Amino acid sequence: MSHVLGVIGGSGVYALEDLDDVEEVDVETPYGPPSDVVFRGRDRDSGTTLLFLPRHGRGHRLSPTEINYRANVCALKKLGATHLVSVSAVGSMREDIAPGDLVIVDQFIDLTKRRTSTFFEGGVVGHVAFADPVCPHLSTALAAAAMRQVDGTQKRVHKGGTYVCMEGPQFSTRAESNLYRSWGVHVIGMTAMPEAKLAREAELPYALLAMSTDYDCWHATEESVTVEAVIAVLRENVVYARRTLRDLSRGMPDPKTSPAHGALANAIMTRRDLVPEQTRARLSWLLPDLSC
To answer: What architecture does CATH give domain 4-291?
Structure first.
């Protein structure tokens, strides 16, 4: 089976470099337009196809709340993605996760308030298992690829960690930051949710490469987070993120081993004959049997 790596790039990661046969693809989805065109290219060493979508749009036009998460995941799935990796800038909530470090997240706490987090609405109900929200095999491969890229540098790769996702776009208050730390989280960001939930509903193995840029505002000896400080660290981290993704594309795990595989097999609770025709049509990209 040929694998296709879908990548959603966050702050600072607006393109992938050194790919062959790059083309821009406009994708229509039942949920409206994705954040931007999808860039499709081929890794010159392995021949693996990569699909890249800038989460905030080129020029960083969309705030975390304004992102059309459903359209983004749908677009990559429609173009044949077999795996999905998210790249996100985050604040560190741990002393040992320094700005510049990379974290392969494996758990999430969702504090978002204004985002649609499911494809199943309008007369159809679906419940997918989400206890382990990332694919362990894809995350392991991602961590190994990241470690190869930072070998010989002072950067560290942390395998595993909890990401608390806030609504934004403002950064945390000091009280909020200290509360989240008391929960034992590792990093904080604004975009992993509902992206990870939608990836599971789309049966896509999902992993997240988090780039630590700052210590949020909890750290007594560090200045509170600013956009300027974030951008300075991002510029350095982006190079490693791009190299990691190309490395990963040369050795991705079998998607059938992922907990995302077959996630919808027993998830739909609604009796099929009661699903409205419009809803059947909207979900035809994901559940073609539902439209029969």
So the answer is: 3-Layer(aba) Sandwich (3.40)
